Amino acid sequence: MLSLALACGGLSASEVGDRIRAVERRVGAPVPIVVAARDLPGGAVLRRNDLAVREVPERYVAPGTLSSPAEAAGSRAAVPLAAGSPLTQNQLETGRGRARGGRGPASLRPGERAVEIGVAGAAMPVYATGPGARVDVLVSTEPREGPGRSFLALQDVELLGLRDGQGTDVGSERDGEGTPAAAVAKLRVTLHQAVYLTAAQNFAREVRLLPRPVGDSRRAGRTVVGAGGL
Question: Which domain holds residue 71?
């Protein structure tokens, strides 16, 4: 019986090992990445105890993600960082106050505008990669004359910058007061989209960014959820 139990145990361990290897073939082996150990404002000088190391599958590591705290310690955050968010080179300032990793976003082209909007949620969503990231814009309305709803307002737009939202309000509550913004995002949009987002910030309850994984250019159809559908 003992030999049978040992044989079964060895077989189970072998099966588990096979499954782990199969998963690693699909998403890559775990690799270390540097994350913010706590919420950090833009402009903060990063210390070792502000940083932590986590392991994630290689497939989900964005280009430029740091792998050692030594790469970031002593640098200044170019954007607000939420606890647990991965650190990339573009989120750190150089000595001249510009983000690392190149020349930054391209100049505006004819027909394009840069619009700043206050956004709710974490100061820096954990999967955002800073300037150059692609995001979707989610707008939620107040149930004033009908049921409140949340809908996907814009898809796959470029994030040009992100700064602390102190002193900026998002949307408007029933009493006319807005809620403090967690961050202010600068987006590359068309003129029509700029007007739309400005109206959303002034009259909707809140605006949120949904950062996209690197390389994901898929578009969703009309996506709306009303209070009555919950």
Answer: 30-91
Helix %, strand %, coil % of the chain (to 5)? 25, 35, 45
130 and 77 inside one domain: no
Task: Identify the residue whose tokens are 């107040």.
Answer: 142
C-alpha 147/C-alpha 227 separation (Å) is 6
Strand partners, 52: 35
Mean pLDDT of the chain: 75
The answer to whether the beta carbons of residues 14 and 46 sit under 8 Å apart is: no
Instruction: Region of 203 please: left (phi>0), alpha (psi -120 to 50) or beta.
Output: alpha
CA distance 11 to 102: 52
Domain count, the chain: 2
d(CA 150, CA 146): 13
Residues 180, 82, single domain; the answer is no
For residue 141, give the 3-state DSSP assignment: coil
pLDDT digits (tens, 9 = 90+) for 98-143: 455 444 566 777 888 999 998 887 545 544 556 778 889 998 887 7
